[in-house]
Amino acid sequence: MHPCGQGDAVEEVMSDKTTVELPTYFGVKAGMTRIFDDNGNHVPVTVIKLVKNFISQVKTQATDGYEAYQVAYGEKREKLVNKPLKGILAKAKIETPLTRYSEVRIEGVNSEDLGKEVSLDAFPADTYIDVTGISKGKGFQGVIKRHNFSGGPGAHGSKFHRTTGSIGNRATPGRVFPGKKMPGHMGAKTTTVQNIKIQELNLEKGYLLIKGSVPGAKNSFVKISKSVKK
Length: 230
Description:
230 residues, mainly beta, six-stranded antiparallel beta barrel
């Protein structure tokens, strides 16, 4: 060790050169479980499997007209990565075969961050976050399930059970207003849950516990961002 503790400082600088801290991270929803906190309270949590995120491209104001980092994640077998994506990874000197790419807008990007791994330093325990994912698809559903309509009587000759009912007037206006609640495709939409708390971060075992539920099915990718309203 260097005298006066300078060796620790040198090691810290070296570690900073291999990772970059971003306000966004992409993980995999592994499912839900429950834990008990220090006071013995029951806490339902969502388990997020931590996967490697890399900076695969740096967007600058001079070349692209805006500043952002392109983040690559979602490791698969090398044969499943097409040639254009292999070119992006090769240019960034990323050896891991990755198939999913997203942009993170951020001011003050650094071209030296190309190829670096994204750290989780911005997401310690008790941090409030927003989680974005694709909600579970429910297929084609009626108005009772899709919009919580009450429905009609179930007996006594009623012909109005689970149907929509009237959707408009007569000759005036002579049309159905846009946005009318009707049967249709339900779910499978990009959904964001705001202001939920990180319960635990375990880098050794590679998981993150989020208090409550988040959108998405098991094994689906979710976007974890610092809360914008906290």
